[in-house]
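[audit] Reproducing an earlier prediction to check determinism. Same input, same settings, fresh worker. If the tokens differ from the archived copy the diff job will pick it up downstream; this log only records the rerun itself.
[audit] input (285 residues):
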Amino acid sequence: MKARRFLAIGVLACLVGLVLAGAAEDRRPDTAKVAKYVRFQVGQTIAYGMIEGDRVRQLAGDLFQGWSKTEKTYALDEVKLLVPATPSKILALAGNYRSHVATQPATAHPEVFFKPPSALVADGGEIVIPTGTNEVHYEAELVIVIGRRARNVSVEEAPKYVLGVTCGNDVSARDWQQNDRQWWRAKGCDTFAPCGPVIVSGLNYDDLLVELRLNGEVRQSERTSAMVHGVAATVSWISRHVTLEPGDLIYTGTSGKTGAIKPGDVVEVTIEGVGRLKNRVAASE
């Protein structure tokens, strides 16, 4: 009996080990399907490219309308990486992490606001603190990049309309956000939407670690699995009301507590499997 009991326990332990190993394996991306895209500039040429190791292969055509590989490649340090898309609009979510809204109840559907494309700034660009505000905060966020025109798509179909994801920082002037009736300047000032530098497809977008470092110190750290509304649900919900166009961006909300930034600070947003978005903070002239 004892031998049988030990055998049964051993078999059960093996099964548990296999299940746990399988779960861990499921979290790992299929590297054969992961692709990394950039929009870059070399001299007077602006083009889309695909990252291959430490080089960028230039693509012919439009990343969102049809493209093909060319024979031109450049070392990554030879090119200037731009904001990876030129969206017709930027949407962003409020209160999409319970850790950010504290005791407030979770929203029944994604709560969405707009940021203007003029707020975009690329990796390496400056976040400029405008005059008149005394409290500007960082907000590290996963950004969805729309790949196809989406109108009234279901949650099940929504992933087909996502090209990939990138890093974002929903910079916010908290005093204006609290005191103005609308968020147009609190969220939409020039340089208040750092984004990039790489669009990555083929990952599990709903289970990625998002972190923010301020001057090298980690200030935010949470997985996207903690989002109240995931990527597919967000795209589906927005598409019921606003037609999403190729290249449009959706900032998916921030986690935990945010903090103030000041001129001279360096803000870095890193997302597991995606990369790092780094910007220095400057005062307005």
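[audit] rerun output stored. Observation attached for the diff report: The chain has two domains: 35-81, 90-283.
[audit] end
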